[in-house]
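Let's do one together. I've listed all components of the complex below, 570 residues spread over two lines.
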Amino acid sequence: MKILVCISHVPDTTSKINFTDNNTQFDTNGVQFVINPNDEFGLTRAMWFKEKQGATVDVVNVGGPETEPTLRKALAIGADSAIRVNTPATDGFQVAKQLAKVATDGGYDLIIAGRESIDYNGGMVPGMLAALIKANFVNTCINLEVEGTEAKAIREIDGGKESVTTSLPLVIGAQKGLVEESDLRIPNMRGIMQARKKPMNVVEPEEVKVQTEVAKFEKPEPKGAVKLVDPDNLDELINLLHNEAKVI
Amino acid sequence: MSVLVYVESEEGKFKTASFEAASYAREIAQMLQTQVTAVTFNVEDNSELGNYGVDKVLKVNNDKLKNFNAEAYADVLQQAAVKEESKVIVVSQSANSKYLAPLLAVHLNAGYASNVVALPESTTPFTVKRTAFTNKAFSFTKIETDVKLLGLSKNAFGLKEIKADAAAEDFSPNLNEEDFSVQVTNVDKARDKVTIADAEIVVSAGRGLKGPENWGMIEEMADILGAATACSKPVSDMGWRPHGEHVGQTGKPVASNLYIAIGISGAIQHLAGINSSKVKVVINNDPEAPFFKAADYGVVGDAFEIVPKLNEKLKEFKAKNA
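Okay, and this is what the predicted structure of the assembly comes out as:
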């Protein structure tokens, strides 16, 4: 089985979010970039398929050279080779289009992408990619098993879960649950050394017509101070929630 | 030319988030001087949609569509959009809508903006405000395609009652075999519990509760308030509570009217995930906990003393205001 894991290069979850150029650009100053957490759950599941079922695992990112350390980290975790589509990621559709080309050229059986990135939160790439390459699609996937060309998956739904059967080629939207937090791997020294020698293939982008564009960013209004209620006067809390906030 | 809205239902009952999507579609239709058409699946009586400004309902009745199926539903919505010549399509941001929207976007060659929180700032260019960076910021996104698909965040717009005809008409789309290449074999859903996605109130607890055996009082509070229960990341990582309850940046987002956090310190990732909730209450024994900076109301003290007392008072309140 040939697996492609799509890796988004995103600011670490603890990052402070700021903008420059008149609020049109994300300020990367002092920001640490990581593998998008949802992609990392997917990558870790791909490692399981590699070790247990002899799958090969490639990773791909759409982005400039500055994203290569993130791909190297994925190689250090255990992916076999990396592909970087040499163009800045502009919107979900453009990324999905670039990935579709890579997926088709590589003839992958299973493509794993996080259900959403933690920066733009579009939640578009896995589904759009599946539609573009006419593969089956399971979103918010929390369990996946593959036998031959048949796949069994579990999808998280609002308030529960749903089991599905489908077949390859398949795209899944990965998230926590596909593997546990404790299964995530921190690259060891051997992995890091090996990753340096693994292929990093840079491919040139497809021409894609722009569908959406960020005109500007805005930060939320700073919040007013918290109203503290005395623990011995909880009636006051109920009164505030009922009469002031009107939420109970 | 009408604005198309996908109305979700469960066992013949409409979802509140879909009434919100219909209300939102109605106001966009007014901006564009057109009407609202809703698409419903296997719902007999659609008159309720007339309370939220829906002019016309395309009723789909098909046993094959009894279970939600993203590919098949997207196919139906595409055919409805073509039939109605819709340029704007509105969906909610439920798990199912998020699943089908990117498929629909590709089929319609539509630009898709998810997590939209307000009416379009302008319709030429078509610019919408959406959340980004897991609620740490907003982005104003211009959609440049002819057809636009909008995913409306829960509780961002609210319900707007406005009378309209909701004239129902049968709609029989063409379905093909490929629409069903993902087959549902089992649905496992707690029927008697409020889900985080649907809840108006969410009661959430963290490591401050010391162990899973202490969740009784949290569930009791949720029961009294008709709320959903949730938890912080460490709690789900330690297996005290199921993953489905984990809210935060890598868990579920919460956009309830009221979010009550008990024994949760308020790590930046947690706050990002619950930021869209309207009113936040924190109960924590550490006055320095970062959650106090993000909350509207706070109580500093021991959760094990406060929560049982608060539950009693909430019961009295509910009895009086029933």
